[in-house]
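Morning!

This is the sequence you dropped in the shared folder:
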Amino acid sequence: MEGKTGFIIAATCVLLLSVAAESAGRMMGGMGGGGWGMGGAYGRMYDSAAVETISGEVVEVGQVIPVMGMSPGVHLTIRGVAGDMISVHLGPAWFIENQDVIIAPGDMIEVKGSRVMFDGQPALIAREVSRGDDILRLRDGNGYPVWSGWRRR
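The structure's back. Tokens below.
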């Protein structure tokens, strides 16, 4: 009888832990990366039908946490050719920091991405950033992040 009770308790613990782990994965956006995957609320904001291209000067490079619980990301403030300012979200900081293309204030860039409203302001979730001949690819044509699965390579 004691053996059955111990087995039932152990099986229950394993079941509870697996359910908790799956729930935590969903809260983090499904594909890992601290909520930056396509399955999370932020990833679902990207609309491949609303992609546009803007050009301008990088005024500021900073960090953003788009949704509470996400890992920090990198965003740019761009001054467009008409003098308008727009926030551009690149992706998770851990990914951007490991790329060969470094974007800095003063750089003239072209950004292709999905226009969204973020905190009541227009913003662009970047698909790719071009600076001269350098291209920083962040998402494919459907908006799928290139960092999803990147650490497994």
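Headline: Residues 10-33 have pLDDT under 50 and may be disordered.

More detail when I'm at my desk.
O.
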